[in-house]
Amino acid sequence: MLTIVVVVLAVLGVTADRVAVHYANQEAATLARQKYGYGADTTDGYLNVSINGFPFLTQVLSGRLDDVTLSAGNLVLNSRANAQGDYLDVQKLDLDLHGVTVTSLAARSAQVDLVTGDLTLTYQALSGVITRLMSNGGGLTVGPAPGSDGQQARFRVTGTWGGRQVDTVGSLLAQGAEIDISVPGVGSSGGSSSGSNTSTETTGPGTYVWGVQLPVNAGFSAATATPTGVDLSVIGHQVVLGSYPSAG
């Protein structure tokens, strides 16, 4: 009989723990949507948060969560230039939060020891935004190109521009919480300044910059061209949750 009671209590404990973590996952997703806009700007956008580790309630009582994963998709970014048609579709954003300490329940803020993750852009999305912003009477298609290095990925741009055939190599620079896309000899940006690939609002002909709402102290560390798109790596130490950089 005692064994049965112990088993029943254990099952109830596990059930309570799972119910609590399910509720916490939903609340965390709501907060992330409110703070950063993840999954809130498109009809098909999504955001999932999973608090890992067991037992969850023990982690809560200690004020520290071992591991939390966040997955968002079908996001939309707008460029610094606020140009017509400047929306850039993000296929997905995955973040893995290691060592989450709740710093303020009232402010709903926390500090994370380490954040790692990836942001993915498809060539289809890049083709669309480059055509809308930089084309001149024709469509432009983006595909893979060799030569990615560090925080800069390269891609090939082909199509028609100004009545002539285009076959050139563009670049995507990911630094801080910004994405800088440049296609030499094609299009024009929303303003005038130097033609260097720096993360400013207007960086020269054929260049646009988008800000990404990442938590404080998190930023891009690498950009890599793949057969299907461009992957941007995210990393951050002592990351603050609950606010994002003004650049985002």
Q: What does this protein structure show overall?
A:
The structure is a single chain. By secondary structure, the chain is an alpha+beta fold. The protein has one domain (68-248). Helices cover 22% and strands 45% of the residues. The protein is built from 3 helices and 11 strands; from the N terminus they run H-E-H-E-E-E-H-E-E-E-E-E-E-E. The protein has helices at residues 2-36, 56-62, 123-134; strands at residues 46-52, 64-77, 88-104, 109-122, 140-144, 152-161, 164-175, 178-182, 207-211, 216-225, 229-241. The strands form 2 sheets. It has a 6-stranded antiparallel beta sheet with strand order 1-2-3-4-11-10. Strands 5-6-7-8-9 form a 5-stranded antiparallel beta sheet. It starts with a helix and ends in a 7-residue tail after the last strand. Mean pLDDT is 77; it is low at 1-19, 189-204 and 244-248.
Q: What's the topology here?
A:
Blueprint: H1 2-36, E1 46-52, H2 56-62, E2 64-77, E3 88-104, E4 109-122, H3 123-134, E5 140-144, E6 152-161, E7 164-175, E8 178-182, E9 207-211, E10 216-225, E11 229-241
